[in-house]
Amino acid sequence: MAVAAAAASPCIFCQIAGKSTSTTLLHTDEKVVAFQDINPAAVRHYLVIPVDHIPTVKDLQRKTEDYSLVSHMLEVGKTLIQRDAPQCHQYRFGFHQPPFNSVNHLHLHCFALPYTPRWKCIKYLSVGSIGFVEAEKLLGKIKPLPPGISKV
Q: Hey, is 35 helix, strand or coil?
């Protein structure tokens, strides 16, 4: 995304990905950027977002490109969290699903636990197929099927 387009975008995450805000980036590459959540819910709470605008997890499909992107987002998140909170022994990685997402730009929440304060865990509960979906579970849903096999 061009910097001028990002600056004009109403999407705050597009602006961050386009480096048109003062947000400190913890990681940047051609596919994703990562930064601290402005309202952290854990010892460490980072967001990893794609540079390209993808509204929500509902926009992901069983395509190699989508699977690769989410895998890369998770890899970046794990690397950052484990680097910055090696003393923590519990980590959590996942996505909010509509209508529970606060920003309509795909973003991976990366936590080094415990939650702070502890009640904030409520916002990140997985309840059936709504609310918050663990990154590994999402990867299972969007993993491309082998050639010749169709989803029943």
A: strand
